[in-house]
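Data availability (excerpt). The following record was deposited with the supplementary files.
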Amino acid sequence: MAEQDFLARIRQTEREAAQMVATAHANARKKIEDAKVKAAALIAEAQAEAVREQKELIRLAEQEAADIRAKAAQGVQVEIDSLKEQSADKLDQAARLVAERIVSDSADR
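Predicted structure:
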């Protein structure tokens, strides 16, 4: 009887050990699955943040480009005004010379 009791205890211990191993495996699978879900959420969050940062950088670059274009246009306009001012005097002078030539040529005929 003592042998049967001893064997029964060994079998019970083996069942408990097998149950512990099965529980450990199940817990490990659950932890792995939870970690995968958490990792996927973190990746999605990081990707969304990267998209937001990229959009902000693009917005800043476009704003800087617009500022550069505006400054360049302003500089060009200043140059245009300066050239118009310089050419106005020369146009008047050229018109006078042409008129004088016309008058001079007409007088010579």
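Summary of structural features: The mean pLDDT is 91.
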